[in-house]
Amino acid sequence: MQRLIRGLLTRLPNPTRTIRTLSASCSLTQKAPRSxxxxxxxxxxxxxxxxxxxxxxxxxDVFGAQVSETIPLPEHGVYTVFVExxxxxxxxxxxxxxxxxxxxxxxxxxxxxxHHICIEVDSITDAIADLKEQKIRVLSEEAKIGAxxxxxxxxxxxxxxxxxxxxxxx
Length: 170
Hints:
By secondary structure, the protein is α+β, with helices and mostly antiparallel strands. 29% of the residues lie in helices and 29% in strands.
């Protein structure tokens, strides 16, 4: 093998420079990927709103966006409406029920505001296992079915630079 490499190097115009370039581009510290899952595209940005009909009207009538019907999600404690933006969506959230997580958010933020971002993953199960191993807190023991009919989990904002992150299986 060494003879073959030496033979090939003697045919190069500047073998020393070629070796340096190759070794610089092939770092010895490169590692194989840690996990079996991949982070995908931004699915939506969720906005908590105190008045869902007013918010729907803003996006539909003022901005001219395509706005979905209101979808109740009692298992998540929210009413949700999706606003299509072309490259992503907005999700308008309004409290449903007494234990809605949006109620507490709106008590602190009377006018509403950004609640979370949702990023797609190719395997929610692998993502949960890997993130727990890395000490990222997942806010439920297992995934729940979200507004798109796909499994979702939320990650603790204190572990994600102050942002509540929702992962959704694509």
